[in-house]
User: Which sequence fits this backbone?
């Protein structure tokens, strides 16, 4: 499994990297622009990410705009629905607030910070990712 993590919070990014390294190869970046670059490069090389974790409130490009750009690249490069990346949106906002401001629904799940390892691993399992 290949995973891309985009979070401008160093501690949170490293925490996710530590968890997800047990599942496979992990690439961590600190902003949305870098996430788009990594995702597009991987799609072009026919080695796309299986899972992308995006912080919603990032510098340079927020998580929603990052996701839009990644999905646009997948569509442009004709990535089949079957192999396109699954996406988890991550936010410091609680789910009620997040639902009220949601501007994009092209992701698979979201989880609120602080991330609880058991809850996160259960979400990964529900999405079909196992160690």
Assistant:
């Amino acid at each position: 499994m290949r995973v891309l993590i985009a979070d401008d919070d160093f501690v949170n990014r490293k925490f996710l990297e530590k968890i997800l390294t047990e599942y496979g190869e992990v690439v961590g970046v600190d902003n949305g622009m870098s996430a788009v670059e990594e995702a597009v490069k991987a799609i072009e090389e026919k080695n796309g990410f299986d899972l992308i974790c995006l912080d919603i409130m990032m510098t340079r490009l927020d998580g929603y705009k990052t996701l839009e750009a990644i999905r646009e690249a997948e569509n442009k490069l004709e990535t089949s629905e079957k192999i396109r990346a699954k996406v988890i949106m991550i936010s410091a906002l609680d789910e009620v607030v997040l639902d009220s401001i949601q501007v994009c629904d092209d992701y698979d799940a979201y989880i609120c910070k602080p991330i609880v390892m058991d809850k996160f691993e259960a979400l990964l399992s529900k999405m079909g990712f196992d160690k």
